[in-house]
Design goal:
This protein is mostly helical. Helices cover 66% and strands 0% of the residues.
Length: 1413
C-alpha cells in the first residue's frame, strides 16, 4: 500500500475514533479504559534506557483495574502478590528449605526494586532455579520474571535481556505454567523495550495457536511495534482490527503514531499528531510530549527539543526528571552525545533522582555510552557534595564497577578515576582495582596497579590473592606463575602466607615448587623453603631453629600452630618441644598485647595438642606427656585456668584423669578465693546476710571487696533497703566502683531521694569523670529532678549527656514522652524548658509525639484555643504539628467556626492544601459529620494519599469505629488512585476484631460490585473470618505453603480432570477416596502429574498411612521410572517412620537424602532423634549426627544421647555428658536440658531424677551455672510438683535470679487457657519479682485467655492498691474484656491496636537486653 494511502486510511480511522467511545475531555476517563494509566506509572516506568514511546513508557490499564496489568505494582514492590505467607506450624507438612530460599530471593527482589528500581540477572536466575526445584510456578511469578527482563535489568544488553525472557518463557511453560493474555502482553512490552525485531502477525498467530484472545493492550503494543519500525501500513492494519472489535483508540495509540511518523521520516505529521489528538477529544499528556521529544532526539534537532519542552510547560505538562532522562538516553544512543550536556542541565534532581540516574548510567554503560553516563554521574556527586559524610565517597562505585564488568578500556576508566579523585569526592583508583580483582580480570588489574604505582600508591601483597585463589581453584600452575611474575615486575614479593596458601598447594613437593619457580625466573628459594618447611617438617628441633632465629619475622600464630602440633604429637624430641613452648610463652614476638595473660598462646598450643590427639595416643603416651608437663613446670611455663579446665575435661574423656594433676601444676594461681559460705539462708534477707559475711571475711583477709560490695549493695537496692546500702557505701568508700554508684543512683531515683542522688552523682564524677551513666538512668534522674522542682539541675544533667555523648535509645525517647506528659499536668513552663534543651542539644529529634504533651494539657482542659496556640508554637520552633487532628475534631464538634477557620488558614499555609483537605476530611468523619466529609473528599483534583488513609483506618480499627470506617470506604470509592483492595482490607481487619462475619460478607459483596481485584492476603483474611464463624468462604482460597489451595470438587468428566480431583481430595484429607480415584485413573490410562502423586503421598504421611503411601509411590514409579518424592515428602516420610518407631526405615531415608545432596529438615531430625533415644539406640544417634552435620552443634543431639544413656541404665554417662556441656564458661550452650528433665519426670524415673538433680545443684553452686537447675525447677512446676520445686529452690537460690527463663515460663503458660495455676505457683515460690508490672501483665493475659472478667477486675484493683502502673497492653486487654461482656470501660482505653503495644514491649525488652549486655 502506498504511503499516502496508508496515511489517508489512518486519518479516516482516527476521525472515526469519535464514534469509539472517546470522552471529549482529556481529563475524564475514557469508557472502558483508564486513559492516564496507573497514576504512579509516570513516576516510575522502569529503568531509563528504553527508546520506546507511547505505550512503552506508560501502561494503559483496563478500567477493571486489574493489578496484574500495572507496571507500577509489579515494578515497584508488589511482589507481595507473589510472596507466600510464613506462619509457623507444628505439623509435619513444614515448609521445605528450598521454598524458604525461594521466598527469601523474592524478598530480596522486592527490596531491590523498591530501593533501586532495578534487579540483577543473578536474582532472576536464583528465582528461576528455585521454581524449577519446586516445580509449581504460579502465573503471577511468571509475570514478574517476564517484566524483569526489560528495563528493570539495565546491566544486560538488549539482546541478552530478550534471550533471558525467552528462556524464562520456555522454562516456565515446560513446568506447566498456563499463559494468558496478560503474559503475552508482558512479553510484548519486553520486546518493545529491548528493541527486539519481531513479526506482529506471527505474534498474533502464536496467541491464536495457544487459544489466547488478544485484548486492547495487545493491539496497542502491536501498533507500537509497527510504529517503532516506521511501518505505518502495519499499524493501520492493527487499527483496523481494533475498530472491527469496537476497541477504543486511546492516548497510547496516538503516542505510538507520533513515533511511527517520526521513524517514517515525516516529522511534520509526527508534530501534527498533537492537533489530531485534541480534535479527537484527548489532551496530549506528558507521555505524548516525551514521544515527540524522543523523535527529535533521534534526529539530533536540539532547537526543536527546546521548543517542544517549552510547549509542554506551557501546556501544563510537567516533565519529570525520569522523562528528561529518556531524552538523554535517546540522544546518546542516536549518536548525538554532544547535545546531552544541554539536556542534563534541565534535570531538577527531584525526589527519587538518585536511583533513576544510576539506572540511566548503568544502561548507558551497557550500551557503550560511558561518556554520557559519566556526565550524568557527576550530577550525583553534586547532589551529595554538601554532605560527604552521607556516602559521597562511594557514590561513584556503581559507575566504576559497571565499567569494569563491561570491560571498558582501562585508559578511559583511569581518566574517569582521575576526574573523580580531583573532585576530592572519591578514592576512585583503589576502588576500581578492587572491582577488577573481584571480577578476576587479571590484565585490567595489573594495568591499574601499574598506574597506581606510578602515582605512588602502595601496592600490597594481598591485592594479588584473589587472582591466585582462582588459579588454586582451577589448578592452573602456569597462571599462578604469571601472577608471580607480574608481582615481581611491580616490585612486590610474596610473603610466607601467600606462598603457603596460594603457591605451594599447586605442587606435590617443595623441590618441584622450587624448581618450577626457578625455571620461570623467580628467585624465591629462601621464602619458599621456609614455607615448605613449616608445612612439611615434623621435626621440633628444626622448627625451633627456624622460630628462634632473630631475623625470623613474626607469623600469625594460626599459621604455625598446625605444623607445631603435627610435630609435637610424635613426642620424638621432648626437649625441643619444651624449648618451643617456652619460647612461645616468653618471647615478645609471640605475645598478643590485647590478651589479658601473656601465656595465652602457649596455653592454646597445649590445649590444641591434647584436643588433636586421639584417646588411644594419649593413653599410650601418658609417661611422655607427664614428662613434658613436668619440664614445662620447671621452666616456669603457665597456662590459664580456662585452658586447664578444658584439658582436664579432655583427659577425663580419654580415660586418663590422673594426667590432669600434672596439668594442674601449670595453672596460674591468682590468689586464693574465699569458699562459698553456704546458701542456707533463703530469701533476700538471707542472701544479704550471706553476702555481708563474705564481705567481712574478705576484708579481714585484706582481699579486694569491690565486686562483693557491689553485689551486696545491688541486693539491698533490689529489696528497697536504700538506707543500709548507703551505710555500706559510707563504710567502704575506697572500694566503690562507678557501676556501684550507678546502682545506688538508680535506687535513689526510684525512691525519689533527690539530694542523695545528686550527692552520689558528684562522688561518682570525682571517682572517675570519664565514666558516665547509661541513658536510661540519666532520663530517670532528669525526670526526678524536674518533678521535684529542680529544673536547673535537670538541665545540667542534659548538658552532661551531650558532653559525654550519651545516645538515647527508642525506649529513652518514650520515657521522655511519659516525663513530659506527667510534668505537663503541673507546670508547662518546665516542659517547654526541658524540650527546648533536649532539642537544642540534639539529644532527640523534635517529633509530634514528644511535643504532644503540651497540646494534650490544653485538650484535657477543653481549651481548644490554647491547644491551637501550642501547636503553632511547636511548629514555629520545631516544625511539627502535634495532635492537630484532635484539635480539628474538637472544633468541629464544638461548632467553633471562627477558630476552625483560623486553624484551617494556619494548616493550609504551613502544610499545603492537600494536607489540609485530608485533615478536615478525617476530622469531619470522626466527628460524625459525614455530609461535610463527603464534600471535602469530592474536591476536584484530590488524589489518594495511602499513608494518610492507612493512618486513619488504623485509628478506626483501634477505636472500634466501624460506622466511620464504612463511611470512609464508601466516600473514597471514586477517589483518584485509591487502592480499593487496601481500603477494604482495613474494613475486614475491623470485622475480624469484632468477629462480625455478616459485615464482612457485606463488604465482600461491595467489592464485587466495584469490580475490585482482591489480593491474596485480603482473601485469606476474609476466609478466616468466615471459617471462625462456621461459614464456608464464597470463593477459592489462595495457595499458601501451610495450607494447600482449595480445588473445585466436581467429579472428573474426562481424563484431564483426574489430576484436579485427586489433588482436591488429598488437600481435604480424603486420602482413601483420592487413592481410589488414582487407581481408577490408572485403569483408564489417564496421565497423572508427578505433583499429584507427591501431594497424595504427603497427605497419607500426614495421617500416618505409611503402607498406603508406599503403594502410591510404587504406582508412580511404575508410570514414571524417574519419579522422586519432593523434599517435603521425604521429610514427612522420615517423620512417619519415627512416629511408628521404625527407626531403621527412617535412617535409610536419611542416608538416601544425604547421598542425593539433600538435607533433612530440623523437624524431621528432631523426630527421628526422639525415636532413637526412646529405643536407647546410641549407634543410630551417632550415625545421624554424622549425616546431619548442620545440626551437629545443637543440644538436640546431647539431650537425646543423654536420654538414650538413661534408658540403657547408664546414668553416670548421661550425667557426665550433660555436665561437660556446662563446665566450660566460654562454651556453654544457649539451649538447656529441659527435654531430658521432662522425659525423666514423665517416665517417673526417680533414680535418674536424683542423679540429674544433684548434677544441676552441683553446676549451680560450684560452677556458677544455673541453667540446668532452672530447667529442672520449671519442669517441676510444669508437672505441678510444687513441693519438689520448692525444695530445689532452697538448694539453689540462684534460680530465683534467672529472670529471663522465669518470665519465659510465665509468657508461655499465659498463652494457654487453664494455666493460671502454674504461674501462681511460681509467684508463691518467688514472690519478690522486681518487675511487678510485667508479672501483672501476664496474669492479665491469663484472665483474657480464660475470658474471666471478674478475676481481671480483681487483679486491676490489686494493682491500683499496690501502686503498680498498668501497661497499655494490660489496659487494652482489660478494656476488651469489658466490651465483650457488654460493660462500660471505666478508664480511658489505649487508642492503638494490640499489635502496636506488643511491638512496643518487644522493642523495650530488646533495648533492655542490649543495655544489660
Amino acid at each position: 500500500m502506498p504511503f499516502h494511502s496508508a496515511t489517508e486510511n489512518m486519518a479516516a480511522l482516527l476521525r472515526s475514533a469519535r464514534l469509539l467511545k472517546i470522552s471529549p475531555s482529556g481529563l475524564l476517563q475514557i469508557t472502558g479504559t483508564k486513559r492516564n494509566g496507573p497514576p504512579l506509572g509516570r513516576l516510575y516506568s522502569g529503568c531509563l534506557g528504553g527508546r520506546s514511546t507511547g505505550v512503552c513508557s506508560r501502561q494503559i490499564s483496563p478500567a477493571s483495574g486489574h493489578a496484574s496489568s500495572r507496571v507500577w505494582l509489579y515494578a515497584m514492590g508488589c511482589v507481595r502478590n507473589y510472596a507466600v505467607a510464613t506462619e509457623q506450624v507444628d505439623e509435619p507438612n513444614m515448609v521445605p528449605q528450598s521454598k524458604q530460599r525461594y521466598e527469601s530471593t523474592l524478598s530480596m527482589l522486592d527490596k531491590s526494586l523498591k530501593r533501586t528500581g532495578r534487579v540483577t540477572k543473578t536474582m532472576l536466575q536464583g528465582i528461576l532455579h528455585d521454581i524449577r526445584r519446586e516445580g509449581l510456578p504460579s502465573g503471577n511469578t511468571a509475570l514478574l520474571l517476564l517484566r524483569c527482563c526489560g528495563p528493570l535489568l539495565p546491566e544486560l544488553p538488549y539482546e541478552k535481556r530478550t534471550e533471558l525472557a525467552h528462556h524464562v518463557w520456555d522454562v516456565l511453560q515446560q513446568l506447566g505454567t498456563k499463559y494468558d493474555v496478560i503474559h503475552y502482553n508482558a512479553l510484548l512490552k519486553v520486546y518493545l523495550h529491548n528493541e527486539f525485531k519481531f513479526s506482529p502477525t506471527d505474534f498474533l498467530a502464536k496467541m491464536e495457536t495457544a487459544n489466547v484472545k488478544p485484548n486492547r493492550i495487545t493491539y496497542q503494543r502491536l501498533v507500537a511495534a509497527y510504529c517503532k519500525n516506521g511501518d505505518l501500513e502495519g499499524a493501520s492494519t492493527i487499527l483496523g482490527l481494533m475498530k472491527n472489535e469496537d476497541l477504543p483508540i486511546t492516548e497510547a495509540v496516538f503516542n505510538s503514531l507520533v513515533t511511527g511518523h517520526a521513524r517514517a521520516g515525516d516529522m511534520e505529521s509526527s508534530n501534527n499528531m498533537l492537533t489530531v489528538m485534541s480534535e479527537a477529544g484527548i489532551k496530549p499528556s506528558p507521555d505524548t510530549y516525551i514521544a515527540l521529544l524522543n523523535a527529535y532526539a533521534e534526529k539530533g534537532d536540539l532547537d526543536s527539543l527546546k521548543k517542544t519542552m517549552e510547549a509542554a510547560e506551557s501546556a501544563d505538562c510537567c516533565l519529570m526528571d525520569r522523562d528528561i532522562m529518556q531524552v538523554i538516553f535517546t540522544l546518546a544512543m542516536s549518536g548525538h552525545e554532544q547535545h546531552t550536556p544541554e539536556i542534563i542541565k534541565r534535570l531538577r534532581h527531584e525526589r527519587g533522582y538518585i536511583p533513576a540516574a544510576i539506572n540511566l548510567c548503568v544502561n548507558l554503560i551497557t550500551n557503550g555510552k560511558e561518556g554520557t553516563a559519566f556526565n550524568v554521574q557527576k550530577t550525583l556527586t553534586l547532589v551529595h557534595s554538601e554532605s560527604p559524610q552521607d556516602g559521597s565517597f562511594t557514590i561513584g562505585n556503581f559507575f566504576l564497577k559497571h565499567c569494569v564488568n563491561m570491560d571498558r578500556p582501562v585508559e578511559k576508566i583511569v581518566s574517569f578515576c582521575k576526574e573523580l579523585q580531583e573532585s576530592k569526592m572519591h578514592t576512585a583508583l583503589s576502588r576500581t582495582l578492587f572491582f577488577a580483582l573481584q571480577a578476576n580480570k587479571k590484565d585490567m588489574s595489573f594495568a591499574l596497579m601499574k598506574m597506581m604505582k606510578e602515582q605512588n600508591f602502595p601496592i600490597r601483597t594481598h591485592y594479588f590473592w584473589p587472582l591466585l585463589a582462582q588459579h588454586i581453584k582451577d589448578q592452573n600452575t602456569a597462571g599462578m606463575v604469571e601472577v608471580l611474575k607480574g608481582m615481581q615486575e611491580l616490585e612486590v614479593y610474596p610473603d610466607i602466607r601467600t606462598l603457603i596458601a596460594y603457591v605451594h598447594p599447586l605442587f606435590p613437593s617443595a623441590q618441584e615448587a622450587r624448581q618450577a619457580l626457578k625455571d620461570a625466573g623467580l628467585s624465591l628459594q629462601r621464602e619458599l623453603s621456609l614455607a615448605a618447611e613449616f608445612r612439611l617438617t615434623a621435626d621440633p628441633a628444626q622448627l625451633y631453629t627456624i622460630i628462634s632465629d632473630p631475623s625470623f619475622t613474626r607469623l600469625d600464630f594460626l599459621v604455625i600452630r598446625n605444623s607445631l602440633i603435627v610435630g609435637f604429637r610424635k613426642f620424638h624430641d621432648i626437649e625441643s618441644m619444651v624449648k618451643i613452648t617456652e619460647l612461645l610463652y616468653k618471647d615478645e614476638r609471640f605475645m598478643t598485647p590485647d590478651l589479658p595473660f601473656p601465656c595465652t598462646e602457649a596455653s592454646v598450643l597445649l590445649y590444641k595438642l591434647i584436643a588433636a590427639m586421639p584417646a588411644r595416643d594419649v593413653q599410650a603416651r601418658q609417661d611422655k606427656l607427664r614428662e613434658f608437663f613436668n619440664q614445662l613446670q620447671a621452666k616456669g611455663v603457665c597456662i590459664t585456668e580456662n585452658h586447664y579446665k578444658g584439658m582436664k575435661n579432655l583427659l577425663i574423656s580419654y580415660e586418663v584423669p590422673e594426667l590432669s594433676k600434672d596439668v594442674l601444676v601449670l595453672t596460674e594461681q591468682r590468689g586464693n578465693k574465699s569458699g562459698t559460705q553456704g546458701r542456707a539462708a533463703a530469701g533476700t534477707e538471707g542472701k544479704v546476710l550471706t553476702l555481708e559475711k563474705i564481705l567481712a571475711s574478705r576484708m579481714e583477709e585484706n582481699l579486694s571487696v569491690s565486686k562483693i560490695l557491689k553485689q551486696t549493695i545491688q541486693t539491698l537496692c533490689a529489696s528497697g533497703n536504700l538506707q543500709r546500702a548507703l551505710e555500706l557505701k559510707q563504710q567502704n568508700e575506697k572500694d566503690m566502683m562507678v557501676s556501684t554508684y550507678a546502682i545506688l543512683i538508680s535506687e535513689c531515683t526510684r525512691q525519689s531521694n533527690v539530694e542523695e542522688a545528686l550527692n552520689l552523682k558528684r562522688e561518682m564524677n570525682r571517682l572517675d569523670s570519664s565514666k558516665t551513666l547509661n541513658s536510661h538512668l540519666f532520663i530517670n534522674l532528669v525526670k526526678m529532678l524536674a518533678e521535684n522542682g529542680k529544673v536547673e539541675e535537670a538541665v545540667d544533667m542534659l548538658k552532661e549527656m551531650k558532653e559525654k555523648q550519651v545516645a538515647l535509645t527508642a525506649i529513652d525517647i518514650k520515657l521522655l514522652f511519659y516525663m513530659f506528659t506527667d510534668l505537663a499536668e503541673t507546670d508547662l513552663d518546665n516542659v517547654r524548658r526541658l524540650q527546648d534543651t533536649i532539642f537544642t542539644l540534639g539529644l532527640a529529634e523534635p517529633t509530634n509525639n514528644l511535643c504532644s504533651p503540651l497540646v494534650t494539657s490544653y485538650l484535657d482542659r477543653e481549651d481548644l484555643s490554647g491547644a491551637l496556640d501550642a501547636v503553632k508554637e511547636c511548629h514555629k520552633l520545631y516544625n511539627v504539628l502535634p495532635r492537630v487532628h484532635d484539635i480539628l475534631v474538637g472544633l468541629v464538634k464544638k461548632g467553633d467556626t471562627e477558630l476552625l477557620a483560623e486553624a484551617m488558614d494556619f494548616l493550609g499555609q504551613e502544610r499545603g492544601e492537600m494536607i489540609l483537605l485530608y485533615q478536615l476530611f478525617f476530622a469531619f468523619l470522626q466527628a460524625g459529620r459525614f455530609s461535610e466529609a463527603r464534600k471535602i473528599i469530592e474536591t476536584p483534583g484530590l488524589r489518594a494519599r495511602p499513608r494518610s488513609l492507612k493512618w486513619f483506618a488504623e485509628r478506626c480499627i483501634a477505636l472500634n469505629m466501624m460506622e466511620t470506617l464504612e463511611q470512609m470506604l464508601e466516600m473514597t470509592a471514586k477517589l483518584f488512585q485509591s487502592d480499593r483492595d487496601e481500603m477494604y482490607f482495613y474494613g475486614l481487619c475491623l470485622c475480624k476484631e469484632t468477629n462480625d462475619w455478616k459485615k464482612a460478607e457485606e463488604m465482600w459483596m461491595k467489592m464485587q460490585e466495584e469490580n475490585v481485584n482482591p489480593r491474596q492476603r485480603t482473601l485469606r483474611l476474609l476466609a478466616e473470618i468466615f471459617k471462625n464463624n462456621g461459614q464456608e468462604p464464597p470463593f477459592e482460597e489462595p495457595e499458601t505453603w501451610y495450607k494447600e489451595p482449595v480445588v473445585k470438587t466436581a467429579a472428573p468428566e474426562d481424563l484431564t480432570d483426574y489430576n484436579a480431583h485427586v489433588l482436591n481430595l488429598s488437600r481435604k484429607d480424603k486420602v482413601k477416596e483420592a487413592f481410589q480415584t488414582l487407581k481408577e485413573a490408572n485403569k483408564r490410562d489417564a496421565e497423572i502429574e508427578p505433583r499429584t502423586y507427591d501431594h497424595l503421598i504427603r497427605s497419607m504421611f500426614a495421617q500416618g498411612l505409611l503402607e498406603d503411601a508406599m503403594k502410591v509411590q510404587e504406582i508412580a514409579t511404575s508410570q514414571m521410572p524417574n519419579f522422586k518424592m519432593s523434599e517435603v515428602a521425604n521429610n514427612m516420610h522420615i517423620i512417619t517412620f519415627s512416629k511408628k518407631g521404625q527407626v531403621d526405615g527412617a535412617m535409610e531415608k536419611v542416608r538416601s537424602m544425604v547421598q542425593n545432596d539433600s538435607r533433612p529438615s530440623a523437624f524431621a531430625i528432631s523426630r527421628l532423634l526422639t525415636a532413637l533415644a526412646d529405643q536407647a539406640n546410641l549407634e543410630g544417634i551417632q550415625e545421624l549426627k554424622l549425616l546431619a552435620k548442620e545440626h551437629e552443634s545443637s543440644m538436640l543431639f546431647v539431650n537425646n544421647t543423654a536420654i538414650a544413656h538413661i534408658k540403657n541404665g547408664d546414668l553416670d554417662a548421661a550425667v557426665e555428658l550433660l555436665e561437660e556441656c556446662f563446665t566450660h564458661p566460654d562454651r556453654r550452650p544457649k539451649d538447656g536440658i529441659s527435654h531430658v528433665f521432662k522425659k525423666v519426670l514423665e517416665e517417673g524415673n526417680d533414680k535418674a531424677l536424683d542423679k540429674l538433680s544433684a548434677m544441676a545443684e552441683r553446676l549451680a553452686n560450684h560452677f556458677d551455672c544455673s541453667k540446668p537447675a532452672t530447667d529442672l525447677f520449671l519442669q517441676l512446676l510444669d508437672k505441678d510438683k510444687v513441693e519438689d520445686a520448692k525444695f530445689m529452690l532452697a538448694r539453689c537460690n540462684a534460680v530465683a535470679e534467672q529472670t529471663g527463663p522465669l518470665m519465659s515460663f510465665m509468657a508461655r503458660n499465659a498463652q494457654t487457657p487453664g494455666q493460671l495455676g502454674k504461674i501462681k505457683n511460681l509467684l508463691s515460690l518467688i514472690p519478690d519479682f522486681t518487675e511487678k508490672e510485667v508479672v501483672y501483665a501476664y496474669l492479665m493475659k491469663c484472665h483474657d485467655v480464660n475470658k474471666d472478667l471478674e478475676s481481671a477486675k480483681a487483679l486491676y484493683e490489686q494493682m491500683q492498691e499496690e501502686g503498680v502502673v498498668a501497661q497499655e497492653l494490660t489496659l487494652k486487654r482489660l478494656a476488651v474484656l469489658y466490651r465483650n461482656a457488654g460493660q462500660t470501660v471505666p478508664f480511658t482505653e489505649p487508642p492503638n491496636s494490640f499489635s502496636f503495644y506488643v511491638e512496643q514491649m518487644k522493642e523495650k525488652a530488646k533495648a533492655q537486653e542490649t543495655h544489660e549486655a
